[in-house]
């Protein structure tokens, strides 16, 4: 049976070897509540830890990293893509004040190369440690004929918990709240279909190579495009616990305005001042090479802002100080006001970025 399966393109022994190689990294991404080890049919988490909550609300999120995996494949660098995966799911939980507890992952590939799979899982596990979540299990599936031997995709899901009384969201946002922006580490893992089309696939003199050094980036294009997604989880949870922050927004697909609007009550509007920050050079590179209009950039890329907090004016200095202590640059980027007719629940970006 095993030989027949191998003839069909599925290598069980390679999968077993991948599990052996990843065990070290999965072990690092544990929490005290995790029971058992790698290899079971299900990950186990001791839910008695939730007894300390008066009314625990479970939060869950799932996502992938999109076409950024194509950059990892072409660069043959696989130990950072896991940061993107973890960042995409845990920071969706954090915006409501939930602490990420555990995560599972799914890797589909055309051919299991144990070292490659172990590198991917190493990144996932390392990022889980940074986020404070346990990696309790996952699945690696070999799909010959569906994916080329060197192709793969990753997805993940996470579960967290928040006390009902501590839930953040639009129900707390008020007129006079301040918009605190948190710097992204770069493109994160959204908008890569646009970025790849503009920088790598376009015809003409603007097309770049991944291995090419780009002076304005200070490194090769491939190195820039593989910069991992920043994980805000621990820093934002500290802000949630130590300040009176009202809401947060994770800036992913759709850009800053669309994601912040998801936590805006209808009777209010938020105004973001572009002049408060200059996006990193990679954003202006995409704009210039592809001649991409600013509205299209802002509807696709994070433009240098990976997370936003809406906080009372009295809490701004404390919020920015806490984020700085966690190594996250943050600044006042705008304010929340009562909405004029037609602006209900909207987010407006005004002004110009310095140097743009």
TrEMBL record:
- Residues covered by the PurM-like C-terminal domain: 174-340
Where do the PurM-like N-terminal domain residues begin and end? 49-162
Q: Which HAMAP family does UniProt cross-reference here?
A: AIRS
The processes (GO biological process) annotated in the record are: 'de novo' IMP biosynthetic process; adenine biosynthetic process
> Which biological pathway?
Purine metabolism; IMP biosynthesis via de novo pathway; 5-amino-1-(5-phospho-D-ribosyl)imidazole from N(2)-formyl-N(1)-(5-phospho-D-ribosyl)glycinamide: step 2/2
A GO molecular-function descriptor = phosphoribosylformylglycinamidine cyclo-ligase activity
Q: What is its EC number?
A: 6.3.3.1
Q: Which PANTHER family match?
A: TRIFUNCTIONAL PURINE BIOSYNTHETIC PROTEIN ADENOSINE-3, TRIFUNCTIONAL PURINE BIOSYNTHETIC PROTEIN ADENOSINE-3-RELATED
- Pfam families documented for this protein: AIRS, AIRS_C
Q: GO cellular component terms? A: cytosol
Q: What is its main location?
A: cytoplasm
Query: What protein does this entry describe?
Result: Phosphoribosylformylglycinamidine cyclo-ligase
Q: Which residues form a coiled coil?
A: none
Q: What InterPro entries does the database record attribute to this sequence?
A: PurM-like_C_dom, PurM-like_C_sf, PurM-like_N, PurM-like_N_sf, PurM_cligase
Subcellular location(s) of the protein? Cytoplasm
Keywords from UniProt, A to Z, are: ATP-binding, Cytoplasm, Ligase, Nucleotide-binding, Purine biosynthesis
Similarity remark: Belongs to the AIR synthase family.
Q: What reactions does this protein catalyze?
A: 2-formamido-N(1)-(5-O-phospho-beta-D-ribosyl)acetamidine + ATP = 5-amino-1-(5-phospho-beta-D-ribosyl)imidazole + ADP + phosphate + H(+)
